[in-house]
Amino acid sequence: MDVRLPLMSAGIALALLISGCSPSDEKREVSLEEKTAQFEKSLDAIQDPKLKDAVSELGGSLLLLERAQIKLDSKPLETEYGEDALAMLKHYPSPQALVDTYINGLFVLQKDSSSDYLTDLQPVFPFTFSVPAAFVFPHGLEWQSVTLSNKRVIPFQPEWSETDPGIQLSPSSSNLTNPDDLTVAYPFIEGLDIDRKRQPQPVSLQGKVEVIAPRRLYSFDLSKQDVGKTRTNDNLSVTLLKLGNNYAEIEYNNSAPLAAEVSETPLNPLIVQAKDHTGQFITRAGSINETPAQIAFYQKQLAKMQEQKTWTEPFEKQIDEEQRTFEKQQTRRYSKVYFNGAIDTLEVSLLDFSTATVTRKDLDLPVRRFEPNTTEKAIQPLDLPVVVYDDQAANWLKGATLSEDQLKKNVTISQSVDDPSAARIEFNHLRSFNDELLGTSFNPGESPVSFFTEDNHGKRDEPIELPPEAYQIDPLNGVITYDLNLFPETPAYAVGSMPLFLATIDKKTLDARQLPKGLELKGNALIVEMKEFPAQDWRFFAKDDNGNYLKEILSVSHDAAEQGPALFAVHYFYGQPAHLEAYQRTDLATVEYGFEVKLDKADASRLDQ
To answer: Does residue 82 lie in a domain region?
Structure first.
C-alpha cells in the first residue's frame, strides 16, 4: 500500500483492505464514511462534466489517502518476516552488472495447457520477486510477437478475441500468479478434431526490454539514536524524523539534478527496510508519501474547485501553476513507511539517478521445452550466460537441524465453527526444509483427544462421553473435525496430543571434481542417479567458487517409461557448481504435541434442534 498524491488510480482501493480497527479507529472510520457520503452528495450537485471529473479525482484521492492512513494506523502488530530486497544487488560489482544479468538470464518455457487449442509460454526471470517487491530498477518489458515452426509470425495482442479466426498471442488469463505468462490460442472449429502434433509450435518469442541503472545505491543504517539527525553521503541525504513501534517517518534528498535520460521518468529512489530485535527483516505493510503540508495544500485546492460553477481554462492554468509552484518548494521528499512487526533498526537506501545508464535491447528468445517428467534419455542443455545466487538457501537449510522444541514452538492452532456439524481444530507449523525431507513413511501412532465442559469460573470441568462418530482425527494433516450436533453437552475445551514429524538429516559437502558414484556434473547440470540417491531421501544444493549458493533454474526427472521408475534427475543452475551440499534423511521421528484448546463457541441457532 504505497499512496501518493495528487492523482492516484482508483485501483489502489483494492490494496487498502487491511482488517483490524481499534475503537478510536472505528470512530475515524465512521467519520470518514460520513465525509465520503457528503463528498458524493456534493459531486451530484456539480453540473459541469470537466469540473465534476477534476473534483472527483482529487477528492477521491484524498479520501483514499485518509482511508489508507486509518487502515495502516489500526493494523494489528503481527510480525511477518521477509527477505532482504537488496540481496541480489550486493552480489554484483555495479548496478549495470545486475541489469545485464536480468536481461541475459531471461528465457521462455513452453507449457501445455489442459486444452488442445492452447499452449502457454512462461517467461522465466533470473530473479524471484515476491509481491509487492519488484526489480529494484525502473524497467519495462514489452512482448511483440511469437514465431511459429511454420515461419508464421503472430503479433501480440493485449487480450484474446472471440471474433479473431486465426492463431492469437495474448496474456494468459488462466494464471493470475504469473502475470507475465502468455498463451498461444489456436482456432477452435466445432465438430473438427485437431491433431496437436500437426499444429505449428512456437519456436521464438520477440519483444523489447528497457532497464534504467542508477549511478549507485547507497544505504544508511539508522536506529532510535538517529531520530532528528540528517545523515549525508556526497549528494544523498536522509533525515529520520520519527521512529515508531512499527513505522518510520523519513525525509530524503538528492542535491544533484536528475540525469537528462530520466528527467521525465517517474522514479521512486527510496527503499526502506527494517529489522526487529532478532536481526531478521520484517515485511513492509505500506507507506504514505505525502506530508501533512502537502495534504493540506491539496485540500485547499479541492475547496477552490468546489467553489466553482464551471471548469474554465484560466482556472485550470491557475490550479496547475499553483501545483507546480508548491511542488518546487518541496525540496525534500517524504515517506512514512509501515512494517509488519516492531522495528529495531532501519536500512534506508537511495538510488542515485544523478547519472543513469539506459539499456534497451530487442529480444528474440528461443522457446524451450522442459517437461518435469520425461522418458527422453538425452539431456537437454540449459546453460545461461549469467550467475544468480539463491539468497534464501542458507536460511531455508537451517531446517536441516530443526529440534523438537523449535518444531513445537512453530505450531499455530486455528479453529472454525462456521459449520457446527463440521467444526475444526487445525494444527499448522511454519514450513521448513525439515518438511521437504519427511518422505512418506509416516507412523503417526495414537492421537488421543478428549472434550470437556467448563465450570462456573470458565475453567476446564468434566469430560464429555461421546460416540466415536462425534469426532474424527486426521493426524497426517493435523486436523480434528467434530460434530456439535452429536455432543450431549456444549464442549469448552479439547485436550490431547497431535503428532508432528521430525526428520534426522545428515549433511555432506562434496567437491565438484570428486563426486561419488551416482552424481555427475555436466557444465551447470547436476545429474543424479535415482537408484543411488532416491528423491524422497536426498536433496542437493550447489555453491560456486565464491561460496555462494547458486539458484536452481529448474529440474527434470528422466523416467524409464510412462509409468516406470525414475532413472535420473537433472538439476540446472545459474552458474557453474564448484561444491555440492548433499542432505540425506536417515531417520524419521514422531513428536507428540500436547495441547489444551479453549474452544470457540458456535452459533447455537445453527445447531440441529
So the answer is: no
